[in-house]
């Protein structure tokens, strides 16, 4: 296995002053890989130079990943302060965030969390691996008050030193505009779906204008995402002819071009891979894309949202479009101004 010197991987400075790598490794196995396979990839990734890992309680593998972290610490491969460990509170723990965070810290054996995210902006729980048509009768639309209650619990965890920075995820501009003036501690990052055929330019620009770092999940279009999330109208980013042409010019897989695009654009991609994580990391230190190539990719926006979120719908919602406030209004929000 080759390695990339972590010191050569470009850094991004968050609004807290924390510097983090311009790429991280995701740990969601998309229901296709076991916790052992995911943690094995994390072990290899640490040794080849990765220093940031994006975890989540609902991925069901934090305890296995924690064993990998502990072994790496014990063997002197890395120190805790060398790693940026990110994780998230799942929807069913919005009312007891401290317990959720402490469990993740214990499972990950990491003493503290560098960035702690609200995984989804509402407490709509669904059973792991459930069918896309599943609905929880207790699901509710977004509530400003409930979201801020969850957020303030994380602010308290920052005060206690258990969390270094706060993250939000799967937000929209209408939701953000409802809460942006209510934070005591400003969010440092926002994790959203970002890939060449789903660039979310307006939201991307909004986050940058408010000094909130965009973090992009599914950066290569997630061809290994769960079957339940795949529909016939989805576009495979890596198969778009213009994209493949750029990859052929560079002599690399199209996934590497997607990562180079993300890094140069200014978002932090968090790709997951069992086998190709070394090449993904190398994308940060090899030839960047040209202005012309960036301009070409900018034309590939196809509104190709892959994570629809159907399982989070509440009674009265029409379909998954209601989750994403596409008409600029938060659907059924009881306390929006």
Number of domains: 1
Q: How much is the average pLDDT?
A: 94
Give the overall shape, derived from the CA principal axes. globular
Structural class given helices, strands, pairing? Answer: alpha/beta
Strand order of the largest sheet: 3-4-5-6-7-8-9-10
CATH architecture: Alpha-Beta Barrel
- How much of the sequence is in beta strands? 5-15%
Low-confidence stretches: none
CATH superfamily: NADP-dependent oxidoreductase domain
- The helix-strand sequence is EEEHEHEHEHEHEHEHHEHH
- Radius of gyration over C-alpha positions, nearest whole angstrom: 19 Å
Helix proportion range: 25-40%
Q: What's the count of strands?
A: 10
Folded structure, characterized:
This protein is of the alpha/beta class. The protein has a single domain, classed as NADP-dependent oxidoreductase domain (TIM Barrel), CATH 3.20.20.100. It is built from ten helices and ten strands. An eight-stranded parallel beta sheet has the order 3-4-5-6-7-8-9-10. α4 links the parallel β6 (113-118) and β7 (163-169).
Chain-wise SSE layout:
Layout: E1 11-13, E2 19-21, E3 25-26, H1 35-48, E4 52-54, H2 62-74, E5 84-89, H3 97-108, E6 113-118, H4 144-159, E7 163-169, H5 173-179, E8 189-193, H6 201-209, E9 213-217, H7 241-250, H8 254-265, E10 268-269, H9 277-282, H10 291-298
Parallel strand pairs: 3-4, 4-5, 5-6, 6-7, 7-8, 8-9, 9-10
Antiparallel strand pairs: 1-2
Helix pairs in contact: 1-2, 2-3, 7-8
Short description:
This protein is α/β, with parallel strands linked by helices and 337 residues long.
Task: Supply the key terms.
337 residues; alpha/beta; TIM Barrel; 10 helices; globular
């Amino acid at each position: 296995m080759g390695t990339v010197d972590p010191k050569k991987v470009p850094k991004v400075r968050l609004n807290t002053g924390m510097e983090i790598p311009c790429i991280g490794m995701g740990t969601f196995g998309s229901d296709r890989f076991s916790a052992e396979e995911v943690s094995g990839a994390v072990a290899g990734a640490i040794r080849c130079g990765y220093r940031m890992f994006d975890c989540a309680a609902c991925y069901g593998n934090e305890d296995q990943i924690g064993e990998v972290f502990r072994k790496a610490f014990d063997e002197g491969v890395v120190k805790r302060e060398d790693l940026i460990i990110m994780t998230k509170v799942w929807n069913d723990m919005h009312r007891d965030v401290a317990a959720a965070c402490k469990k993740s810290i214990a499972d990950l054996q990491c003493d503290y969390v560098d960035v702690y995210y609200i995984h989804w902006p509402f407490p709509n729980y669904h059973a792991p691996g459930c069918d896309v048509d599943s609905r929880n009768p207790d699901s509710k639309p977004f509530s400003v008050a409930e979201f801020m209650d969850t957020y303030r619990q994380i602010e308290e965890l920052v005060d206690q030193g258990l969390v270094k920075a706060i993250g939000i995820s799967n937000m929209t501009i209408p939701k953000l505009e409802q809460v942006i003036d209510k934070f005591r501690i400003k969010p440092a990052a926002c994790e959203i779906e970002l890939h060449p055929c789903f660039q979310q330019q307006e939201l991307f620009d909004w986050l940058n204008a408010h000094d909130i770092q965009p973090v992009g999940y599914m950066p290569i279009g997630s061809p290994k995402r769960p079957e339940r999330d795949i529909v016939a109208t989805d576009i495979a980013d890596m198969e778009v002819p213009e994209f493949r042409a750029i990859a052929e010019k560079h002599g690399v897989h199209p996934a590497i071009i997607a990562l180079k695009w993300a890094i140069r654009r200014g978002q932090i991609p968090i790709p997951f891979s069992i086998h190709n994580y070394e090449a993904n990391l190398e994308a940060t230190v090899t030839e960047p894309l040209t202005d012309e190539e960036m301009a070409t990719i900018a034309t590939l926006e196809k509104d190709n949202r892959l994570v629809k979120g159907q399982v989070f719908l509440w009674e009265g919602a029409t379909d998954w479009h209601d989750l994403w406030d596409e008409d600029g209004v938060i659907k059924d929000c009881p306390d929006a101004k």
